Amino acid sequence: MNQAIVRFSRILGIFVVASLALFPTASSAQGNAPTFTKDVAPVLYTHCTGCHRPGEIAPMSLLTYEEARPWARAIAARVADGTMPPWHADPAHGKWKNDRSLSAKEKDIIARWSAAGAPQGDPNNLPARPAYAQGWQIGQPDVVVSMDKPYELPAQGEIPYQYFEVATNFTEDKWIQALEVRPGERSVVHHVLIYARSPGMTRPQQVFRQRNPEGPLSPTMMKEMADPEIRKEQQAAAMRRGPLMAQTAPGTWTTEYAPGTAMMVKAGTVLTFQIHYTTNGKVSSDKTSMGFIFAKQPPTIEMRTSAMLNPRFMIPAGADNHPVEAGVEFTEDVTLYSMVPHTHLRGKSWQHTLTYPDGRQEILLAVPKYDFNWQTEYMFAEPLRIPKGSTLKSIAHYDNSKANKANPDPTEDVYWGDQTSEEMQYTALYFSVDNAKPTTAAGQK
């Protein structure tokens, strides 16, 4: 027994020495090192605690020194490798209103703070804690619409995308100033896409034409093309959904338009919630809702949404860098406000290049390390004017090899499909049509 105690004491001594080497004492290492209260807290409050606080998506809170201190080395490692904060746009291209990335100075502060043992500093230097809205982040909505009943999730297993129709019950057209999709159980909701179908819906003015290279159809699409009844049903299903209206996902939470800008929702509109659920080891249920804040007066700019996409591709089994292109040609002058590139688990990188009518080219967005876990809406710091005759091309690369640890099955060729085990080449676009008068709405009661 004594020998066991001696061995345990030696092991403990080694652990303590190693710990001191990793986290030196204040007298030996702090010196001029950054402190939490003076230097680190402002960085965390600006870039991190929007997620890293109680009740939000991150696994731990970083609001206080006591909460952040145990994670000092992990924070420094994630900052150093670019994992955190989650921002994937190449800084060489574009300026973004919602850029979450750290400056070189902020990264240095985190690195030196961790290396010095994560000192706390003078509590009197701690800045005021950010004031976060409780509940709805856009403020109390004018109207909230919800799923009719909760969706029950098992503890384990893959769940196909679920679709829920939700009536707005609007009796008159409404201009929407802000909206928010709020999961009932955030821990099991990866992302939600909201589609809007209006009564007597007609196709809106088309501001661009898809310009895609020819590619193979998926076996499902081939079957649909060969069977008129199936094709008719698929077209009807797409019409039942209507155009994409909003979304929520890690990296994209709320939508708020600038004064004078709003989105039209017609009387009688029915929403379709497309929800990607992920099990977490516990039986749970979710009842997702959507909140609307109405514009106080009719806007001068009508926000619209559409997408550039290419559903005709095949990613060969084992391919580690397979490219798929999509393109559009603009047939009207438009102003582009944001972009949301979207692939699934094999998505590796993105690049979006705009070619102006005079031949000049500009890379609008490059995402060299795409991460399916973060569905980011990239909002231009200054809205981009795109003249008629311009073309926008996207190219996504996919890793369908064994080296991709997230790959569901590297032995299978992969085609377009809604499910996570399939793939997409899709970019949502938020824009307005220049010199177009907003649709007339009734009241805003």
CATH fold group of the largest domain: Jelly Rolls
Query: Radius of gyration over alpha carbons?
Result: 25 Å
Quote the beta fraction. 25-35%
Global shape: globular
Biggest sheet statistics:
6 strands, mixed
Structure description:
With 445 residues, the chain is an alpha+beta fold. The protein folds into 3 domains: 31-125, no CATH class; 135-201 and 242-300, Jelly Rolls (Sandwich); 303-445, Jelly Rolls. It has helices spanning 2-22, 26-30, 36-47, 65-68, 72-80, 104-115, 219-226, 228-241, and strands at residues 143-146, 151-153, 162-167, 174-182, 189-197, 208-210, 244-248, 254-256, 261-265, 270-277, 284-286, 289-294, 301-302, 304-309, 322-330, 334-342, 347-355, 361-367, 378-386, 391-398, 426-433. The strands form 5 sheets. Strands 1, 4, 8, 9, 12 and 13 form a 6-stranded mixed β-sheet that branches. It has a 5-stranded antiparallel β-sheet with strand order 6-15-20-17-18, with no helix packed on it. The chain has a 4-stranded antiparallel β-sheet with strand order 3-10-5-7, covered by helices on one side. A hairpin with a 5-residue loop joins strand 17 and strand 18. The chain is globular and about 75 Å long. The protein starts with a helix and ends in a 12-residue tail after the last strand. The model is unreliable at 1-29 (pLDDT under 50).
